Amino acid sequence: MENKEPASTAxxxxxxxxxxxxxxxFPICRSITGAGFRESLDIIGEQINDLSVKSVxxxxxxxxxxxxDEWNIRDAYIETPSGERICQxxxxxxxxxxxxxxxxxxxSLEALNEHLYSMEDQPEAIPYIxxxxxxxxxxxxxxxxxxxxxxxxxxxxxxxxLEPGELNYGEVIIPGETDEEVFISTYLCHPSMGNNxxxxxxxxxxxxxxxxxxxxxxxxxxxxxxxxxxxxIVYLSxxxxxxxxxxxxxxxxxCVGDNNRxxxxxxxxxxxxxxxVLQHALKHTDPDYHRYSYLTRGSDERQYCxxxxxxxxxxxxRSKYGTFPEYHTSLDDMSFISAEGxxxxxxxxxxxxxxxxxxxxxxxxxxxxxxxxxRGLYPTISMKNNYDPIRKMMNFIGYADGxxxxxxxxxxxxxxxxxxxxxxxxxxxxGLFAGHSNPQ
Amino acid sequence: MENKEPASTAxxxxxxxxxxxxxxxFPICRSITGAGFRESLDIIGEQINDLSVKSVxxxxxxxxxxxxDEWNIRDAYIETPSGERICQxxxxxxxxxxxxxxxxxxxSLEALNEHLYSMEDQPEAIPYIxxxxxxxxxxxxxxxxxxxxxxxxxxxxxxxxLEPGELNYGEVIIPGETDEEVFISTYLCHPSMGNNxxxxxxxxxxxxxxxxxxxxxxxxxxxxxxxxxxxxIVYLSxxxxxxxxxxxxxxxxxCVGDNNRxxxxxxxxxxxxxxxVLQHALKHTDPDYHRYSYLTRGSDERQYCxxxxxxxxxxxxRSKYGTFPEYHTSLDDMSFISAEGxxxxxxxxxxxxxxxxxxxxxxxxxxxxxxxxxRGLYPTISMKNNYDPIRKMMNFIGYADGxxxxxxxxxxxxxxxxxxxxxxxxxxxxGLFAGHSNPQ
Amino acid sequence: MENKEPASTAxxxxxxxxxxxxxxxFPICRSITGAGFRESLDIIGEQINDLSVKSVxxxxxxxxxxxxDEWNIRDAYIETPSGERICQxxxxxxxxxxxxxxxxxxxSLEALNEHLYSMEDQPEAIPYIxxxxxxxxxxxxxxxxxxxxxxxxxxxxxxxxLEPGELNYGEVIIPGETDEEVFISTYLCHPSMGNNxxxxxxxxxxxxxxxxxxxxxxxxxxxxxxxxxxxxIVYLSxxxxxxxxxxxxxxxxxCVGDNNRxxxxxxxxxxxxxxxVLQHALKHTDPDYHRYSYLTRGSDERQYCxxxxxxxxxxxxRSKYGTFPEYHTSLDDMSFISAEGxxxxxxxxxxxxxxxxxxxxxxxxxxxxxxxxxRGLYPTISMKNNYDPIRKMMNFIGYADGxxxxxxxxxxxxxxxxxxxxxxxxxxxxGLFAGHSNPQ
Lengths: 440, 440, 440
Description:
Helix content of chain A is 30%, strand content 22%. The first copy, chain A, is of the alpha/beta class and 440 residues long. Chain A folds into three domains: 15-67 and 184-357, Aminopeptidase (3-Layer(aba) Sandwich), CATH 3.40.630.10; 72-163, 3-Layer(bba) Sandwich (Glucose Oxidase, domain 1); 361-436, Arc Repressor Mutant, subunit A (Orthogonal Bundle), CATH 1.10.10. An eight-stranded mixed sheet of chain A has the order 1-10-12-11-13-16-14-15, sandwiched between helices. In chain A, helix 1 packs across helix 5 (194-213), helix 1 (15-25) crosses helix 9 and helix 5 crosses helix 9 (339-357). The longest helix of chain A has 20 residues, at 194-213. Chain A is elongated, with a radius of gyration of 26 Å.
């Protein structure tokens, strides 16, 4: 395949725009099912083209799992012995344990304590707690508030429903010149937390908008916005054969909103095209990017890379889930992520896509070095040191054997792959290079 | 193949029992042939089931070698000019060079000196000297004793025979569920030395007793107790095709009786199953275990790993032959080895066998992670940090792709393989794992 | 193939003889074409047998290149306003830019300056400048001299011709027992410079004389003495299929005349037989030899290793072109190279050839270790430490499995390959080794 024009680098959305979108999504009470998730998908659908919202009925068997009932909640609070309402849902979505059963009951502080969740070591934060598959109810609160609770009779009120309904997810397909696919997944089920996880869907929106603005694409792009775990399992149960056949590279976006160091977690296979391109782009964006072991995984790569699924999905992260104190608490709020963080994360993924689009197996068309002087590409006077400026070009040519793809050559000669794209085009125009989709 | 019950860990013999057995064998005057070797085998045969004692006639051609005549000795001494008897066989077996011809003769000190062996740098030790294939006679003594010898006429007396007879070795076959074999070899020809070599046969006895006590075994175990070099060559000449066909792992036991650091010498191929399991067990028993190069070999692995034989035989050692000053001298006595050393060496080999027995290619039976919560194996509340206790299990599952065996997964996820056996069984009982004998 | 007698180590030429040959060639005004190149080849042809001088007409298409017109020069100088003649060709060949057009003209200093080349940072050196493919004229001089030039009218005189003629190169084929070839290339086009490049042809002459003195050779040796770049491209265009079919190892000789550290540049593939043997010989000659990256290449390996050519050509160098200040200036004169440097470079290449000649896949003829004692090759008394002197032999035998060649075994057991040649012969005479040309 020849790809004469490198994909254009259409301008991207500003960090402010991305941050504003996150701010709009933040207050919605999401869970793995329910109205909040659908409302969030609707807002996302306003920003991009062709978002398809899918629905799977509760009770559907998906591999070893069953889609749970749909959970919705309207109101919740605890009334103290003095009649004060605390832990109100309307104050913070995290005050109610996810998937809490409805309840309206009076009980002692001792009995209530069985249903309260707080963190002694982070007394100023509300923890994020869920119980999707075992029926419970509960409230989450700051430990410092819990310690103020007086003996007496409390009334707990949760106005929720847990009944057959549906699980939803969003899907965007951006067609390319080939049916080979780049797969991108992120998740949207967490209520009112910034880095984990609104950053993922928001960066995905920025990336989708850029991809849709390109005049053409070599690859077809498939983006899934799912509830974590059960959503990726549902998605795989519906698309496994297709994905295994078409996906050449895949990425899980999670915790990509803060502006701290860049991070990477390999796919299980560790050496897929996804791993190669992501590491290459990261290395040339931030030489100190952090590499996490697959042994520390905890997001949807657990499903995508599982035995029997085996998709080439690597993870792009900034501050990884589980490693920052604000993780899974009310402190992971809109101040934890930033316009700069969101924007630079979109840019990193654009760089990844740009390299993938041009990642051909370049091959010279003549034996020996071509005579570049007659084409104005080589100094016509031979003089000490005047080879240095063209060494990058000569090394690119010197490794263009049709057996190495662009990333491989870039790694070998020590230059960023995207800085070689223009050179490849120039060689191709001069009839000196052919670009192949597969090794020769 | 399914292996529902991991091999039981039957109790092992105490170090005291093992040390007592060594003490009983110590005084016997062994060589590569003769009555002492047979007597030693008989004592070993009392401790275990099914020891088969084999016999090969002198003169038998074995590859490039010929089985030598049988050597037996009844008495030996030197009578000094003053009539004192020194270097008496009855005082120490090492006083007589192995395979010494019979002699009874008077001679000057100068002439005698041609037949005396001592060590200037270890004046307090009697060296261990043999001359199996060139006919000689000689006496070995402490250098400090040699320096006291006065001028005069000496009488040397060696009452030995060297004549056609037989070479013997012992063999134990412990049948398993398959005809794939684990081969263990050790040697018994050294007289009155502890680490090199009584430790080898004694540890083999402890291991055989444990293997025979197991209710069943996946592998068939073949243990050979031979005279060094010529014995292993004889064994190979009789069994080479069978061994090449059936042996999946093999170990040479030598110098395993002292309680110093654990050591390992790879097979020539360096990456066989034997090498993998032995290194894995050693690493998790003693992170500082020493790895010797195959270039420093000096025991029967020289034959088992030789070109044209190519068996997967790695060596387990503690203080390696040639590296400790007491080696091949009268100082390598019963005080150099210990009950603790012998017992812990048996335990190390039990660990090796236990891992081998359970070293299946584990594979999950469903795509994606299984839902462990509904089986009581996963926390039902999702809460920060409560994934940590189950991470080992999730990582085991995450790599159970049917392409990696237990050792490989254990190395990848950083846990001892034997600590994963119970977990594998649990997964298998829940129908989530299948265990295969070969990669899928 | 059996190679019973290792190639003899015929005596080599003295460093003085080599240096004298370089001294004789030094004053000749060479370029990539012309009389000077032919005269130099003629002198070389007097020192060796069977030099064949080839001719290719100007205008011949060679891959992406065209053979240029032939350049010859008889005289050149600049006449200063005061009538003094400077930059005379007869004073130094480097004073005239290579391939300068004929000219005889008066012009101002300002106009002249457009045609002058000097180096501010090396004011005491005349630079080496050429313009092969773009028609120009120019003079090169010391910067300190240039700064003395007064305003006024200058006369420039270049008595040269640039017209259709021929390009020449030399070729020596030294037949061996097989049609597998060792290819050696060096270049001769630089005028009046010592390390880069007279050292290359002179070391090649020394090596050819030694190769031709050997009673026989396993390999056929092919040596090409070419003008750089266009010459190697011409050579490849005429011989590519043959070379790709027959060459098993190849070496580019450049900058091999100084007595500084030894250096190596890999072939593009990095792991060919050429790379293995050259690194092995270098390691055992100078453990601190320098390894250059292929990314820093700048000589004819650019053609030999280019995609589509892919010959196994590694480079042997001492002080590499571009890395020493004298490079491509009048300071790279006969004092920069030395008799010791030239002689030790020939010896290194002899060592390379000697190892290649004996680089068989050695294989033992019997399973197990052979009984060396009965052949007088092994101590007949077994005694602590008396294995050490024969460990090299036993390790050679222990790895002689027919799958490793001599170099591979030598690397594995840590001895120079050429020190194993005699041992291999001894084993072969005893019927214990067979030497194969290919892995078994």
